[in-house]
């Protein structure tokens, strides 16, 4: 055997053929790139698939925004492709609008953001940051991706189904409240798709927790873990424990649809003037409880990885330790616990009584405290720093005020008296999109620009990055800021023409045109990103191991890391953010650098 | 590349990877069945009347004893590995597999007697939750049987190559099996007796 060989990561390493022979098998193309068990390849597969679904889900919304901006006018260019069942003569049917709305929410949350944030970044970065050779269960990791993929295919296929009580995909919103969801077309494939996705996230979360507990490198105690790893750790617990009740609820709703049971169907239900021939005695609110028991922790599944990414990037670009690392860790853990007992603040309108609502209002106010602590710590980290305004840092900086707006506008929704007015209006849409779109998705972009050099060995273009950032930042605020005005004015979120028949909407509908134009421009501003992302894989500037002069373990591995990640066993000597240590020759002291004698 | 702690325990956590993994999996299973038992409570408290005596208590009781017996044989299958007695291990593992099979055969007779009497899940919320809970539990039994069949068949060769890892795998299978057994111990009184 040749003494020098190409490491799969592209680095030439000198290996002792004798010692290496026991554990070296050549994997074929399929096993290396498609059915790979390497956490980095799986992470990249997750990230690509997640990005595809984000673009797809966003496209659904851009089509809906045409209908809201110009109600009843034929959709230009692509209108004739949708066919008679969806948009005759290019004019969108209400049923099709509802399909787009339900699938936009489902795709963005379950197929876009979570797979990118947890499956993509978690898989790729976390094992590197804790100095592990791979995930604890590589085969389960691979299975997790492919089950997710099946779930995605099921969801996409549901647009084309014709046998399930009617044509097309689910129409009952991403929350799928019964009894509507039980009788509406397309829901069966949605439920089957969800069961795939839940199974995938279960496999992933078991793997993440085991990896973090078991495979940390020598010297990496819990309080030396980068905050991103902490965020993934708490996220994995939320996925592990909150998703199963929705799996149960999904099975029950599937039974209602396929076996004719009445878990969620009340007695005496009349649909289109005809009494339904079912046993009845079921409970529609039961679904809401089971759904929100998942879906509130899910909100933190969406935001915590984003906070983790932003923390890494802020520490790196301020060249200072994170302000209040311990406070961040305690906050994120407390937030994880609390997220399990706030779910019914989504249900103030169900008439659940003052005792219950007092309890859930109190817990909701309490859970805002750790979020504020985290945001304050990130903000104070900027104090007195000489900031490097790199593209990842631009996105990370924008995350702070955007998530701040999203979080603070949530407080009135957590209080029953204000929520009764604001419930189901565009205010709610504005609120949670500020958290998830310019919040989490900006954090995802920051993470892509930041870890791209680690994954490919090349850097993305800063100029295109700046265009992408400023264009997106301006457009996304024009999209979501007017929604607060519309919502405070009482505009309902589910009307397919915006609600033209209501007098109180008269002054509010004009914003739909502005929002529409901003949304389509936002779409255009993603083009520099796509060009930059794909182009930089081939033409980006070559970088070495540690282009950002960062301190955490992933930057001690080659870029890109080969199979098994590290060339020598990583050992951790200190905390994660030792920047600008007084008396040190350079302004960063990596975790993996031995103490000088 | 070798992933550490696949067989031996990590000193600071006191666990091998697989053991932590199976306990985490069981935690999520607790949440799954917890949600279904909560559903049972909500449906029952909301019902105008709740049927009694629709199920065959003797058949249910027999199945309870069968599953408890299978849990015992499962422990013995693991303990015989630790005592290095391969023959006894085979005997006990196959016994566990057969007992699980008998449980499912009983369940089949129970289900078919309901169907012939027209007692379908759509007839009442009681029958709906009965079929859903026992059906999901039955799928868990089936899943356990597939794992056992693997260790009786193709998975058995691991014993020669790495006996400690094989014993660990039987232990994890056992943990899962006891959980499935425990779920039934809740299901039996809740559905058949109360």
Structural class by SSE content of chain B:
mainly alpha
CATH topology of chain A: Cytochrome C Oxidase, Chain A
Which parts of chain B are unreliable, with pLDDT below 50 for 5 consecutive residues or more?
Answer: none
- The count of DSSP E runs of length 2 or more, i.e. the number of strands of chain B, is 0
User: In oligomeric terms, what are we looking at?
Assistant: heterodimer
Structure characterization notes:
The complex is a heterodimer of chains A (597) and B (194). The two termini of chain A are 40 Å apart. Chain A is globular and about 80 Å long. Helices cover 58% and strands 2% of the residues of chain A. By secondary structure, chain A is mainly alpha-helical. In chain A, the strands form 3 sheets. Chain A has a two-stranded antiparallel ribbon with strand order 1-2. Chain A has a single domain (35-264, 282-556), classed as Cytochrome c oxidase-like, subunit I domain (Cytochrome C Oxidase, Chain A, Up-down Bundle), CATH 1.20.210. The longest helix of chain A is centred in the first third of the chain and has 36 residues, at 94-129. Chain B has one domain (17-47, 56-193): Up-down Bundle (Four Helix Bundle (Hemerythrin (Met), subunit A)), CATH 1.20.120.80. Chain B contains 6 helices and no strands. Chain B is mainly α. Chain A binds chain B through residues 23, 132-134, 136-138, 140, 202, 205-207, 209-210, 213-215, 240-245, 247-249, 251-252, 255, 259-263, 278-279, 281-283, 286, 290, 293, 563-564, and chain B through 1-5, 10, 13, 15, 17, 20-21, 24-25, 27-29, 31-36, 39, 42-43, 46-48, 120-125, 128-129, 131-132, 136.
């Amino acid at each position: 055997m040749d003494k020098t060989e190409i490491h799969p990561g592209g680095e030439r390493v000198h290996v002792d053929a004798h010692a290496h022979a026991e554990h070296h098998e050549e994997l074929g193309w399929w096993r290396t790139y498609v059915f790979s068990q390497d956490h980095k390849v799986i992470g990249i597969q997750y990230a690509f698939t997640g990005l595809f679904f984000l673009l797809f889900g966003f496209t659904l919304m851009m089509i809906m925004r045409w209908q809201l901006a110009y109600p009843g006018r034929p959709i230009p260019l692509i209108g004739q492709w949708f066919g008679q069942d969806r948009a005759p003569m290019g004019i969108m049917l209400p049923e099709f609008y509802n399909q787009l709305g339900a699938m936009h929410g489902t795709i963005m949350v379950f197929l876009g953001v979570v797979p990118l944030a947890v499956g993509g970044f978690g898989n790729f970065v976390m094992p590197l940051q804790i100095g592990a050779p791979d995930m604890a269960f590589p085969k389960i990791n691979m299975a997790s991706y492919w089950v997710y993929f099946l779930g995605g295919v099921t969801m996409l296929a549901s647009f084309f189904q014709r046998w399930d009580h009617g044509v097309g995909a689910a129409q009952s919103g991403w929350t799928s409240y019964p009894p509507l969801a039980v009788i509406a077309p397309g829901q069966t494939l949605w439920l089957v798709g969800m069961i795939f996705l839940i199974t995938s996230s279960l496999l992933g979360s078991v793997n993440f927790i085991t990896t973090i507990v078991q495979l940390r490198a020598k010297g990496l105690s819990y309080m030396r873990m980068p905050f991103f790893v902490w965020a993934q750790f708490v996220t994995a617990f939320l996925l592990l424990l909150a998703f199963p009740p929705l799996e149960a609820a999904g099975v029950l709703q599937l039974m209602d649809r396929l076996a004719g049971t009445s878990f969620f169907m009340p007695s005496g239900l009349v649909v289109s003037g005809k009494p339904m021939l079912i046993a009845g005695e079921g409970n529609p609110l039961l679904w809401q409880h089971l759904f929100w028991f998942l879906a509130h922790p899910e909100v933190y599944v969406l935001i915590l990885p984003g906070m983790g990414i932003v923390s890494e990037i802020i520490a790196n670009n301020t060249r200072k330790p994170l302000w209040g690392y311990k406070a961040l860790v305690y906050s994120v853990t407390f937030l994880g616990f609390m997220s399990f007992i706030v779910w019914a603040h989504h249900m103030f309108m169900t008439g659940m009584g003052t005792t219950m609502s007092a309890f859930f209002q109190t817990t909701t106010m309490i859970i805002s405290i750790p979020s504020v602590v985290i945001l304050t710590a990130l903000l104070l980290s900027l104090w007195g720093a000489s900031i490097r305004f790199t593209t990842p840092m631009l996105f990370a900086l924008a995350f702070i005020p955007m998530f701040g707006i999203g979080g603070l506008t949530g407080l009135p929704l957590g209080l029953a008296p204000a929520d009764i007015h604001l419930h189901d209006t565009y205010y709610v849409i504005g609120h949670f999109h500020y958290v998830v779109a310019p919040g989490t998705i900006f954090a995802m972009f920051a993470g892509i620009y930041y870890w791209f050099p680690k994954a490919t060995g090349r850097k993305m273009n800063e100029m295109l990055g700046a265009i992408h950032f400023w264009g997106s930042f301006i457009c996304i605020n024009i999209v979501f800021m007017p929604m607060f005005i519309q919502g405070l004015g009482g505009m309902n979120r589910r009307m397919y023409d915006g609600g033209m028949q209501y007098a109180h909407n008269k002054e509010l509908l004009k914003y739909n045109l502005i929002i529409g134009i901003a949304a389509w421009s936002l779409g255009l501003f993603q083009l520099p990103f796509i060009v930059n992302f794909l182009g930089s894989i081939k033409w980006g500037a070559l970088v070495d191991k540690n282009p950002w002069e960062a301190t955490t373990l992933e930057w001690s591995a080659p870029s890109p890391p080969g199979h098994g990640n590290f060339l020598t066993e990583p050992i951790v000597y200190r905390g994660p953010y030792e920047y600008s240590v007084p008396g040190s020759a350079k302004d960063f002291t990596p975790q993996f650098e031995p103490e000088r004698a | 590349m070798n992933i550490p702690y696949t067989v031996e325990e990590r000193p600071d956590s006191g666990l091998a990877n697989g053991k932590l993994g199976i306990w985490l999996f069981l935690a999520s299973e607790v949440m799954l069945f917890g949600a279904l038992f909560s559903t049972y409570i909500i449906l029952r408290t909301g019902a105008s009347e709740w049927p009694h005596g629709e199920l065959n208590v003797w058949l249910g009781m027999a199945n309870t004893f069968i599953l408890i017996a299978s849990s015992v044989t499962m422990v013995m299958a693991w303990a015989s590995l630790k005592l290095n007695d391969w023959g006894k291990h085979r005997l006990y593992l196959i016994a566990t597999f057969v007992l699980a099979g008998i449980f499912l055969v009983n369940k089949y007779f129970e289900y078919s007697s309901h169907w012939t009497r027209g007692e379908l899940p759509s007839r009442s919320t009681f029958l709906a939750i009965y079929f859903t809970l026992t059906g999901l539990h039955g799928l868990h039994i089936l899943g356990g049987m597939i794992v056992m069949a693997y260790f009786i068949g193709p998975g058995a060769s691991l014993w020669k190559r790495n006996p400690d890892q094989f014993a660990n795998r039987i232990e994890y299978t056992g943990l899962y099996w006891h959980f499935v057994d425990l779920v039934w111990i809740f299901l039996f009184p809740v559905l058949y007796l109360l």
